[in-house]
Write a structure and sequence with these properties.
By secondary structure, the protein is mainly α. The chain has one domain. The chain has 6 helices and no strands.
Length: 196
């Protein structure tokens, strides 16, 4: 793999992990098994049938959990402690056999990308869950799955295009996170009305 492909793989696995970690691990292992994705030796464990099987089961569980309004936010809050470190590890190991300093740097950047993606997803889900109907939740969930599939396809087909789209996504996610933070700050600072 050349440097651009390696960077795209590292950033792509980190980004997609913030949305659907288990689906990413499942697809990376499966695609690598069938020869569609070249993983470095440091990520060859993803091809293990046990890893693919467990990731597939968890991806299916997440597929269901993510469609249930309110429960999806509970799931996301729990996944905060799994997605971010896993995304950082995937980004670091995607660099292959490199100087450990490069792997650590990739892990730090990857963890940041995963965190930004995860918190933008979780924040938008909290906002969507204020709506009483479930359809917007389902549309968002299917949209996230489509983004992961489309993002992984772009990462493989055109690493430079993927990296450009990733920059656009991260700028939008940053803007969205500042909006959520502003809204949350206003809600916290809102004085409570005295009871009569």
């Amino acid at each position: 793999m050349d440097l651009i492909q390696t960077i795209a793989l590292s950033a792509g696995l980190a980004w997609a992990s913030g949305l659907r970690l288990y689906l990413v691990v499942f697809l990376a292992g499966l695609l690598s098994n069938f020869g569609y994705l070249h993983l470095p030796e440091t990520l060859s464990v993803l091809q293990n049938p046990l890893v693919i099987g467990v990731a597939g089961i968890m991806a299916f569980a997440e597929l269901i959990a993510d469609k249930i309004p309110a429960f999806d936010s509970l799931w996301d809050s729990f996944q905060t402690f799994i997605r971010i470190p896993a995304g950082a590890l995937l980004a670091a190991f995607a660099m292959g056999e490199v100087d450990p300093a490069w792997a650590v740097a990739a892990g730090l950047i990857g963890g940041t990308i995963t965190a930004g993606t995860h918190f933008a997803k979780a924040g938008s889900r909290l906002a969507i869950n204020t709506s009483p109907e479930p359809f917007s939740n389902w549309i968002a969930s299917f949209g996230e799955e489509g983004m992961v599939l489309g993002g992984l396809w772009a990462m493989l087909a055109s690493p430079l295009l993927f990296l450009g789209l990733l920059v656009v996504f991260l700028v939008l996610a940053g803007w969205l996170l500042t909006r959520f933070w502003s809204l949350l700050s206003r809600l916290i600072r809102r004085p409570s009305r005295p009871s009569a």
